[in-house]
Amino acid sequence: MLFNYTWSKSMDNMPWNQGATSIGAQNSFAYPITMSNFKALDYGPTEFDHTDVIAASYVYTEPKIMQNAPGGLRYLVNGFETTGLIQRRTGDPLTIFSSAANNSGSLQNRDRAVYSGSAAYGGTACTTTVNCRNYLNPAAFSVNPVGTFGNVQKGTFRGPGYADWDVSAARNFPFSERTALQFRAEYFNVLNHTNLGDPGTTLGGSFGKITSTSPQLWTATQPQNDPRIAQFSLKLLF
User: Fold this and answer.
1) Tens digit of each residue's pLDDT (9 = 90 or more) over 170-209
2) Angle at 10 between CA 9 and CA 15, to 5 degrees
3) Following DSSP, what letter does each residue of 183-231 receive, concatenated?
4) Which among 72, 84, 83, 65 is positioned nearest to 173, based on CA atoms?
5) Residue ranges of domains in the chain
6) What's the predicted TM-score (pTM) here?
7) Which of 113, 119, 205, 208 could form a disulfide with 136 if both were Cys (CB 3.0 to 4.6 A apart)?
8) Contact between 201 and 95 (Cβ < 8 Å)
9) CB count in 10 Å sphere of residue 168
10) pLDDT digit string (tens) for 153-165?
């Protein structure tokens, strides 16, 4: 069994969603660069920051049992193996933007929403229950008044977490000491758990709603964002 747990925090003062090589334009930050402490609203968790990350994998091969039982019974109950991969992480940092991108009059076009301090999660953003999940509470946020920049710092809130368990079970049917036929049953997302995507983070019609599943997290070959998927195979081992 392998197990890894990472507890971390990554902070920076770069503009939201921009790499180190792309900043420098006058309107990169929420505040104009002529203001003192102009990076104040852009200091917060890095876009890739996830506080808790867990990864575990295991392989279990059943030891031979019932050594004194009849050969047919030993053939039936021995030869099983199971493997699994478990992944879990906390959600993405979320930055809330105003729908009036230039109410501040600074031409930054990056005005932030005003957070009232009330419950930020929940609410009734969805007008339908079909393919929509309430996540951020629209009543807790408002458009920044003319002449102001809003007060939400970068990465103040968190999106949904991610969890996945992939598992396989195998049975070896030996023909000789060196040859066996292996039957495998493999399940991706065995618990059929839905990993939700991030909600809309700009005030307006899509704000606070989750209408998609999480983007791919680990590899391009594993369908971890889909419903439970099963596949079966036979392999000749020699």
Assistant:
1) 998 888 888 989 999 999 999 999 999 999 999 998 999 9
2) 145
3) EEEEEESTT----B-PPB-BSSTTBTEE-SBPPP-S-SS--TTSS-EEE
4) 72
5) 2-237
6) 0.81
7) 208
8) yes
9) 18
10) 999 999 999 999 9
